[in-house]
# Entry
Amino acid sequence: MSEQNQHLEALQDIRQLMQRSSRFLSLSGLSGIAAGFWALLGAYFAYQWIGDYYSQYDTTGSFSGYAFGQLKLKLFLLAAIVLSLALLSAFYFTWRRTKETKTPFWNHTSKQLAINMLIPLAAGGLFLLSMLQHNEWRFVVPASLIFYGLALVNGSKYTLSDIRYLGISEIILGLVATQYIGYGLHFWAVGFGVLHIVYGFIMWWKNERKPSLTY
# Structure
């Protein structure tokens, strides 16, 4: 029995080594929490600006084409800033995690992770730009959630399994959002804000939390 147990332990060790070599396991949960925070902050500003835009109807009885153009520009710049801050936070916390675990930040596995996520993200980004080009705003939020979820699912085979469940949650939320067009900003805040924070905390708790010392 002892020899059999040794063989089982050896197989488990080999399996763990293979998993580590084929998956980027240093993805930090704190990067998800930070991304969620930036998304919620961005949603707050967007809500204020959209509210100001619609309040002009109560004052003048009509909407200004110039004001709408300014609103689109502000929202586009806000989205770019939120995305930049989220990417910088992800880079920093993941880089710090690789230092703690003494694993390379950029290797074959992380490259595969990046490539498999960038394909759906690039396709989704071009699709969203086409929608904006034709002034079709109704499904921008659902499409962004769905394409982002597909990117997470596609890249999850190269990193932590929690990313797959986050991606599925984003896809489901995006599909639900197609039925509630007037609440796009709320779904955006939940998908990119709340879900990131929740899954980021779960990842941090499972993989990064240092257990308290007991005496």
Notes: Residues 33-55+62-207 form one domain. The chain has seven helices and no strands. The longest helix spans residues 65-101. Confidence is low (pLDDT under 50) at residues 13-22.
